[in-house]
Every structure is written in structure tokens, then in C-alpha cells.
Amino acid sequence: MRKITPLPLDTPSHEMVTDLIVRYAHALDDGQIDLWPGFFTASALYHITTRENHDQGLPIGIIRCSSRGMMADRVKAFHTANIFEPHCYNHMIGPVVIGPAKSADAVSSRCNFQIVRIMEDGRMDLFASGKYLDEIVLEGGVAKFKERIVILDSRNIDILIVVPL
Amino acid sequence: MRKITPLPLDTPSHEMVTDLIVRYAHALDDGQIDLWPGFFTASALYHITTRENHDQGLPIGIIRCSSRGMMADRVKAFHTANIFEPHCYNHMIGPVVIGPAKSADAVSSRCNFQIVRIMEDGRMDLFASGKYLDEIVLEGGVAKFKERIVILDSRNIDILIVVPL
Amino acid sequence: MRKITPLPLDTPSHEMVTDLIVRYAHALDDGQIDLWPGFFTASALYHITTRENHDQGLPIGIIRCSSRGMMADRVKAFHTANIFEPHCYNHMIGPVVIGPAKSADAVSSRCNFQIVRIMEDGRMDLFASGKYLDEIVLEGGVAKFKERIVILDSRNIDILIVVPL
Lengths: 165, 165, 165
Fold this sequence. Notes:
The structure is a homotrimer of 165-residue chains.
Chain A: H1 14-29, E1 40-50, H2 51-55, E2 63-65, H3 68-81, E3 87-93, E4 97-99, E5 107-119, E6 124-139, E7 142-152
Parallel strand pairs in A: 1-7
Antiparallel strand pairs in A: 1-2, 3-5, 4-5, 5-6, 6-7
């Protein structure tokens, strides 16, 4: 017989976790950066770092927001500073695996990503690869990120990154 | 508690939707283009366009078939005109998200794709990225595309495209 | 109504199959090659080949292990011979499709992969694409590979491959 441990009913289901992660990616692909903070709880942590820094336990990150308010500020700054060549992204998200819970109310999950960037003239390149380590909770029956750690595989970061990943 | 709206029983389940989309991709990866029309209903719409044209509401497309018969004709033409260097594809499909239903009998879904092309000498490149917007129905208990809109991220289309995506 | 054939209860569920395949990929991405043999049954077959050889029914492979013991030997050799520039991988796994069962106790599945390689200096490239054809069984309630055939799309194999895919 199959050994299965179902997720507690007061946490998001596996399907809800995947759904949240993919809607987030689609919103960014569509350039709807204004929607971005709404995927998080009010006191959520959002952190982009590299594999190298993460493995060494270094707290240094490329972006670090410790509340939804900081994310909203970032969105405002993005609209002001948007001086770049127009481009868009295509997030490919791998199947999501549920890990051991780090707290009673949240589901811990992990998935890979590979992001393609498309410039206005049509050039495409592999922009970034890495993994998402997420803590996801239910808020009013809806799944939200309580924590999202974005770990980039490569240390070569395009210093123009201002968009969330 | 979780807020979930289950799909009506006379429409395909989430799992059936994903299954259809992935079997379609595998058939194309295997070069089994003859199977392609069979994934659609008789009066289905198949349309490839670019993000730019789609966002501007332009009806111009790269391929447009408004019935399964037109798709079958396209397959015939493909066999006749196949004068290209042999190559194959690898479709990477992202997790499928179910959107608000546009009609009572169909499930509306969206997923990303990134397609790698492999030439006979072994060269690989990222051929196309984009998203599928699908309307999927049950026909005799089996899921079929009633509509499949393929939206390419890049405006640089390889003009030799004759294969469906 | 939906036509669905559920998997027998003494075989892994669809979700367990996906979970096994993705944990395997994450372990390799993390460089935890020691975990690799543990994903297989004791008498499992692991085989890497090319699409060309596979389609022609040629038994020639790039790697072939016909037991978990052979896999453990391979891991040992890997630790001894690891003279390469440090690098890591990012496995993107497509949604898993269940095929017709080849034996009563196993689930047959297929999924695509696209693997990015990241060198220590940050360079990224598309390393390999292909598909996994798997036979997966329950062993003490836990899903394991009874057979894993890795079919690479390209015939251009980096001859330095010593890591499992």
C-alpha cells in the first residue's frame, strides 16, 4: 500500500501551492508587476540570493524585502526608474515538491525555474535558472507566500535586475 | 479552510487537461504529426500568433486553422513539402493553470512552453517560448481542444515554421 | 462524464511518480550524487542512450547499470575521478504522463527534461534535452525506479559526462 501523509486541512493543498506559484510567474510574464505584492502576506519575506551565498549561509542578497509594504515601494521605484529597453520574460516552473513543514500553519515547497528573456527585437536568451524555496499559508482560504527565497544558480547576475523573479 | 471551486463533472478535470496538453507535446516531439488533428474537436480553432499581435488584438496569425479538416490538410502539405534538414523538438510545458470558464462546457487553461530544437548534427537551440491559451472539452469522456491559441513571445519567427507548435 | 482509469492501489499514484522524479532531479541539482542509487530498487536498470540509438533499437548506451550495486560503484568512481571544473545543473522536468502498464506491479511513465549547466564562473548553457521513460514500483509503500531509460535528443554528447542524468 502507499505511504502518504496528507497536508493538514488548515494549510494549502499541493494543488493550491502549485497554482499560486504559477499564477505569480504568469503575472510577471505578463508584465503585471503591480500584482506582485498581492501574492504575499503582509509580513512576508522575499529574498533573492545566489546558490553560492545561500550554501555558505551568507545573508547577502540581491533583493530583500521583509514586508509587503517594502514590495509595494519596490514596484513604485520600478515604474519611476523604468529606463530599460523593453523586454519580457517566460518563466518555466518545474513540478513542485512539498518538504517537511517548518511551521504548523505553512507548507514548505521547492521547485526549479528557468527564465527566458525576450528583447523587443525578438532576441531570446536564458536569463536565469535556480530554485524557489517557499513557505505558503492560507489567508482567508487563499494561498499566499509567507516566505519566498529565490536562489539563483549562477553568480553572474545581470546588474540591471530590478524586476522580481 | 481552503476555498476551492471544483470543475463541473461534465468538463475535463485538471489532471485530464494537463494530460491532453502533454500528450500533444510528446506526439510533436516524436514527429507524429499525423496524430495532431486528433487532439481537436471537429470545429476547433487552432491559431499561432505573436504576443505583440495578440496584445494589440490583431487577428493576424502565423498559422490559423478553423476546423480539424484544415489541420488534416496542413498535415498533408507538411508531408509533401518536407524539404528541410531533419530535426526534432523538445517541448517543455509548465504547470497548467485553470482560468475562468468562457463557456459552460469547456475548461479554460493557460500554460507556458519553451521549445528546444535539435538538428540532425546535434546542435540544440531555444527555438520558441510562449504560452498556450486553451479551451478544452469532453468528447465521449475524452478531453479535446475546442480552441488552442499559441502565443509566441518573440516576433522573430523562423519563417520555415510549417510544423504545429 | 469523464473516462478515467485509476491506477491500481498496489502501484504508486500519479502524484508519487511525479514526486519521485522531481526529488531525484533536485538531488542531482544539489550535487548529492550519493543519494542517487537510493532512488532505485536493488535490481533496477538505469540506461542513458540517444534518441537515434533508441529509435533504431540499438542497445548501445552511454551509461548502463543493471543493478543498484553498479550504481553505487559508479558513485565511488565519480568521487575518485572528479577532476573537472566545478559546475552544477538545473533539471527542468515536464509534467509526467502515465502510459500503458508494462507489468502488473509497475507504473509506466514518461516526461521531458531540459537541463541547464552552470559553470563556476557563472556561464550557463543548455546542456541536454530529452525524455525519461520510467517503470516505477512501490517498495515498502515508497516509490522507486525499477527501470529508468534516459533518452537524449542530441547525438552530441559531452564526453565528460560522468554524472547521472
